[in-house]
Every structure is written in C-alpha cells, then in structure tokens.
Amino acid sequence: MAKYRCTVCNYVYDEAKEGTKFDELPNNWRCPVCNSPKSVFIKLDGEKEVSSKEKHTVSDVMIEQMSEWGVKYVFGIPGTSSLGVVDAIRKNDNIEYIQVRHEQTAAFMASAYGKLTGHIAVCLTVAGPGATNLATGLYDAKLDHSPVLALTGQVERDRIGSSATQEIDQISFFEPICVYNKVVMSKEQSTSLVTHAIKYALLERGVSHIGIPNDIQKIPYDAPVKPFTGNLANQAIKQALTQIMRAVKVIDDSVRPVIIAGFGSMGQGDNIIKLAEKINSPIVTTFRGKGIVDEDHPLYMGSHGTIGSTAASELVQKADLLIVLGSSFSDQTQIPEKRTVQIDINPLMIAKKYPVEVGLVGNTAEILPELLELTKKHHNSDYRKEMKKLKQNWENQLEEEIGSDKTPIRPQFIIKTLNQQLDDEAIITLDVGENAWWFGRNFWMKKTQTMLLSGYLGSMGFGLPAALAAQITYPDRQVICITGDGGFSMVMADFMTAVKYELPITVFLLNNKQLGMIMQEQKVENYHNWQTELHKCDFAGFAENCGGIGIKVETPDQLNSAVKKALKSKKPVLVDINTDPRRFI
Question: H/E element holding 91?
C-alpha cells in the first residue's frame, strides 16, 4: 500500500489507513485538508532494499532517506568526487538516474520538475566546475520558487582548504542561491541533513544544497531512515471570516471588477470561472497563468503585460477593482496600482508593490470557494457586451497578422498551426526569446494543457531541459518544446539525452538566424542592430546525427504536414522552421 503527498499543504493520503487505493479515488476527489485537486498529489516511496552482498555506506543511507521522502529522479554527470553517491543510486531500485551532457541541463531539469509537480528532484555533480555549472538552473528554481535539492561532491575532509584540485568554497558559492546549505562532516548527519534539506526546499519553495566530501561517501554505515509521515508541517491556511467578509464587501461594491489569475491559482480554473460569472467579471491571466482556464471561454480576455492582449489591457485600465490571485506582480505583468483584493499563499507577496484594500493569505483552493459562496450576483449587461466586443477585436487583429502565405514563415502562422494540432493535454515548454513572446500572445491554451518557462530569471536554454524533465515525469503525455535558434544552441547537446533515454519530445525551433528579441530591444532603444546575427546551422541535420528525427520547413505550405509528421513520431524530433526576426504587428 502506498502513500501520497499533497504538494500544496503536505497532507499524506495513506492507502493502508484509508482502505482505498489512491488511483481508485474519483477524479473530482479533493484534498480533505486544503481542497486542492487530486492532480497535485505525488507518490511517496517506502524503505528500499539494498543487496546484502554490497556494503552499506553513508551514501546508501542518504539515498534511501531521499527515496523515503519521495525523490524519484536524479539528474547529473558522474565524476571523481561524487562516485560514492552515484553508486548508491545504482543500488537503489526506486530512484532513477538520468545522465545529461551539461550540469546546467541537470539543474534546469530539477527546476522544471519542481514547477511541474510541486515536489523535489535532485541534481548531482562533482566539486568545482560541476558545482558552478549548476548555478543558472538553480537560480531559475530560486526565483520561481521551485523546490530543488542540489548534491555536490567535495574533496576529502582533510584536504578542504588546501587548494586541492577542483576545490572551491562551495558553501559561500551556494549561499546566495539556497534556503539550506550544508556540508556532511560526519556519518551521523546522513539522515538529518537530507531530511532538513528536503524540508527547507519544500516548505520555503527553494533550493537546498548538500556538499558531500569524497571520503565520507564511502564510510561503512547503517541507520534507519526517518519516515515522511509526521515529519513535515501541514501548510493549509484559513483566513478569519472577518477578513473574508471584508473582501466580499469590496467585491460586492464593485461595478467593473477584473480577475487577474497568476501561476499561484493554477488548478482553480473552474472556481475562477464560477466567480467570474457570478460577479460579472472578465478573467485576465499573467504569462505564467496561461492555461488556468480555457482561453476560448467568453470571459477570458487574454494575458496582461508585455505579451498581453489589447482587450486585457483596456479592461484592467478601466477596472474599479482588481481581484489578483496568486500573482507575483512581476514587471512583465504590469499590474497597475488600483483598488485590489489579493490572495496569495506567500504573505510577502501581499501588497508587494502597492497597498491593497484586502490581502488574504492562503491557498486559492480554500479561499475561492468561500468568496464564491458569499459574494452577491452582479448584473451588468453593458459590461458583458463590452468584453465580447474587445475580445472579438483582439481576435480579429491576431487573425489579420497571420500571413499564411508569407515567406519566411511568420511566427504567428507557426503558432496558429501548433494551436490547431497539439493535444488537449500537451505539456509545452518555452525557451526565452521571441518564440515565447509569440506563444504568449498568439497561442490559445486549454486548462488541460501545461506550460513551463523560466519566469523571473528569464534564462535562455530552459526549454529543452524542461521538456526532458516533463517527458520523464509524464511519459504518456505529449511534450512540446518551442524554442529559438539562440536558446536551443546553448543546450543542444542534450538533444542526445532525449535520444539516449528514448524520450519522444518534439522540438519546434523558430529559426530566424538572430537573437530576435535583442534585435528588437536595440531598435526600441535606438541602438544600431549589432552582434545579434547567428551563424546558420543545419539543426535538422544535427537531430538526425544524434539519432533522432530532423525535419526542415522552408515554406508555409510545408508546415502543416511537418507538424503532423513530428507529432506522430515515437522518437525525439526537431522541426527546424525558417522564420523571420521582424515583427509583423
């Protein structure tokens, strides 16, 4: 019998105690503590058997402890100062090791896994250069609040401080990145440091790091692992009724409310729509909030901010109340200072930029049903007609820009073609660059689809590693990476990782032979266009040389059939699409 953890509040569903297998629960079953959907639960594994023929070491105990707390994947590259840990993973049947071609990929994969599941994965590498190569991916996790555990080898304890080969001050290096940062100095710390590291990563939604000196990894040791159940605080948070009623009164008094849904309200699409219908409010999302609701819903007006729609912008500007759900108020979202009711699980996000009328700390899954029950029904037919007209105008504008017969192929046409063919449950990973801009602006997501991107760090190179992590985690779902020639070339060696592990990801590469977004920024700031051109590469040929499938698309009439062929493949595919760096808006 298995146990399953709610990644929102940490409630553990124990099949042995409940008498019903988790998979047999109805799809509409919700966490009995925080009301989160069944989809946010992740399976925990129990104690693992290690062959009695092989000696038990500190590394074995640490890996067993990670497994007990639900770690299923380790991404990394083996090396001299981490061999003991790598061997312990080899002996553990319930943790899978994925070998990558660059440590940055490993860290990006762990970050993407945390964003996708709310749970923790591990990136593992050696001391020195391996550790420093993790930095970009770990900073992505730090800024986007994704739980990650980084394990690094270290030189032997008696050589620390002696300028040994590959020795750096890893504690100082990782300190600005991490919520927990320690070195194992004795075998007795094996279980305690692991449990503390995972606790910090999960509860503070950040990066934990453990350095493990080479000598201590191999010391013979045995110790019982600490169980997950009973060792992690439940994080369900309820607001006092007086606070809820303050928010209700403000909402009831509004005439032109607008709901802005961020990543923190993911999974609450049905409740958001019900509330919007009751209070007669349009729904706007942040970029990371795309897909919270079906974007063809009549009340959905598009995203707000730099990739936003004209409909969303106008309605937000004219609103007399913003109801902001799980948004971090990033500069890119451009939420203006207005009368606001804000809900966020992180109290530091409340009134992050401006004072708010009412700030409610808690999970949207708990608070939205109360607001839905207590608010009054609004009637404003003119407001509803205005929404419909603004959305139709926006749709007309997007349609006019497509240019389905233009060569090089317009990115708007590429995105429309993908919109028509991707699965309703596809996982879509984005790289940073113009490809993400066009996706955010032109792709109409369904609430059953999932999108992953590097949010606050905005790092190029995220798309491919995120796709690898997504396909490993959800092997039965269609996984799509939308990238540019600039972002893909930073991590392209790890297309071989997809081939090696038979991960049928599909990479759509918008090849404009430019750092397109930088080119546009130079233009906006009246600089000369300089050093943004990229050397031409046969990316489709590269994919073939790696053992995958490469498809070249030069003209609009080739695109539809190329997309169909790529999506039917059971092998990793790269579709190299010739597009234009100029904006057509």
Answer: helix 83-91
